[in-house]
Amino acid sequence: MATGLIALLDDVAGLAKVAAASLDDVTAQAVKAGAKAAGVVIDDAAVTPRYVVGFAAERELPIVGRIALGSLKNKLLYLLPAALALSLVAPWLITPLLMLGGAYLCYEGTEKVYEALFPHRAHQHEAAVAGVAVEDVQGFENEKVSGAIKTDFILSAEIMA
């Protein structure tokens, strides 16, 4: 009888060990999923704030809404079907496309560094932007929104692939 109790306790200890190992696996998977989810959120958070600077306060929320709607449309209507079709038809093409997207993002980053190192050109641009006529504000807003959506498209494509 004592042997049966020891065997039962041994089985319980074995089950506890397996359960502890599976908890480690769950934690690792949760960290991986969280990192991917954070990448999508950071993608959108990186795009929107810099595009609403300089607009009237009542226009900021509609601009962010238009950017979010364009981002959602890009992801659901273009990127997701294209990524699925591309992985089915030509998986070898994914790497060169990612390299092109990365090169574009490097270009944008280099442009920002250049503006930080040589601010006279940036100040000239800001002075030109500050002098935007009232009737051209809608065109300026449309230009900013389309630029944000284009940048979000590239970032989302890099993350989704």
Structure summary:
By secondary structure, the protein is mainly α.
Report what the structure shows.
The chain is built from five helices and no strands. The protein is mainly alpha-helical and 161 residues long. It is elongated, with a radius of gyration of 25 Å.
Helix content: over 70%
Shape, please? elongated
Strand content: under 5%
> Spans of 5+ residues with little confidence (pLDDT < 50)?
none
Q: How many angstroms does the end-to-end distance come to?
A: 60 Å
Report the total helices: 5
Overall number of structural domains: 1
Q: Structural class, from helix and strand content?
A: mainly alpha
Rg, rounded, reads 25 Å
Average pLDDT reading:
75
Largest sheet: none
Order of helices and strands: HHHHH
Q: How many beta strands in the DSSP annotation? A: 0
Could you outline the blueprint of secondary structure elements for this entry?
Layout: H1 2-51, H2 57-89, H3 94-117, H4 119-130, H5 137-160
Keywords:
mainly alpha; 161 residues
